[in-house]
C-alpha cells in the first residue's frame, strides 16, 4: 500500500521495482530501480523535525527489503539504504541511519542512529546502535555494537560472507523480475 503521510508526502517508486501488495510505504520514501520490497514490510517517513521537515527514506538500486522489515526515522531524520544491499526478514532500521552499498543486515537485527559502511555484514539478531561501523566489518550474530565498542575486536568480512551477501542480493533481483512478470496474474 502506497499512502501519504500527514504532511502530504507520497512515496516515489521506480517503475522497475517490486513492492509486495501487503507492504506499506508511507510518506517521503524513494525506491530506486530493481528494488524488492517483501511482504509486510513497513517503510514509513512521517515524523517531522521541529520545523516540519522530513528527510527521505531512500532505498538504493538493486537492494531488497525482506518480509516484515520496519524502516522508520525519528523526527524526520534521513535513512539511506545503499545499492545492492539486503535487509533480511524482520530487521529494524531506525533513523537517523545510513547503510552503505553491498551490505547485508541479518534477520531480526536492529540498526539505530548509526552508519554501516560499504560491504559490512551484520548477522542475525545483532544490534548496531549509536556508532559508525567502517567499511568491511563483520558483526557476528547476537552481538551489540555501540559507541563504546572497541572496533579493533570486530572481525573483517570474509570472502565467504561477502559471497553469501552477494548471492542474497542477486536472488532478490531475480525475484523482482519474476514478480513483475506475474503481477497481473491471479
Could you outline the blueprint of secondary structure elements for this entry?
Layout: E1 2-3, E2 12-13, E3 18-19, E4 24-27, E5 29-31, E6 36-37, E7 42-45, E8 57-59, E9 64-65, E10 70-73, E11 79-81, E12 86-87, E13 92-99, E14 104-105, E15 110-116, E16 121-122, E17 127-129, E18 132-133, E19 138-139, E20 144-145, H1 159-181
Which oligomerization state do the chains in this entry correspond to? single chain
CATH fold category name: UDP N-Acetylglucosamine Acyltransferase, domain 1
Low-confidence stretches: none
Mean pLDDT: 94
The helix count comes to 1
Helix content: 10-25%
- Strand coverage percent: 25-35%
| Rg (C-alpha, Å) | 16 Å
Q: Shape from CA axes?
A: globular
How many structurally independent domains?
Answer: 1
Number of strands: 20
Supply the CATH architecture.
3 Solenoid
Top-tier CATH class: Mainly Beta
What does this structure look like?
There is one protein chain. The chain is mainly beta and 186 residues long. The protein has one domain: Hexapeptide repeat proteins (UDP N-Acetylglucosamine Acyltransferase, domain 1, 3 Solenoid). The protein has one helix at residues 159-181, and strands at residues 2-3, 12-13, 18-19, 24-27, 29-31, 36-37, 42-45, 57-59, 64-65, 70-73, 79-81, 86-87, 92-99, 104-105, 110-116, 121-122, 127-129, 132-133, 138-139, 144-145. The strands form two sheets. Strands 1, 2, 4, 5, 7, 8, 10, 11, 13, 15, 17, 18 and 20 form a 13-stranded parallel beta sheet that branches. A seven-stranded parallel beta sheet has the order 3-6-9-12-14-16-19. The mean pLDDT is 94. Belongs to the gamma-class carbonic anhydrase family. It comes from Paraburkholderia caballeronis. This is Carbonic anhydrase or acetyltransferase, isoleucine patch superfamily.
